[in-house]
From TrEMBL:
Keywords: Membrane, Transmembrane, Transmembrane helix
Top-level taxon in the UniProt lineage: Bacteria
Transmembrane spans: 5-23, 58-77
Keyword Transmembrane helix: yes
Protein name: Putative membrane protein
Native source organism of the sequence: Rhodopirellula maiorica SM1
Amino acid sequence: MWRSLFIALGIMAVIVGIEFLFIDSATIYQGEPANAVSFVDPTGAPANSAKVFRPKDWMPWSLLSGGIITIVYTYLIPVRYARWRQSPGQ
């Protein structure tokens, strides 16, 4: 179970790192709280608050390298553990 969790986290870090390589900035909009009128009339104006996220130059490369190292290490753990368990005299 832990192995699959770390593989998923590594894959997610690689995907986010690749995305950060291709974007310059991302605009994040915060929605207004829903009320009964908004379900009847969905043409309401969007919220005024928007945040712009600009990834630093080091972010894509660190996410890519950290994700790849995590993925590779999760595949090597069973091999290292098997050798440790089979070593005689310990």
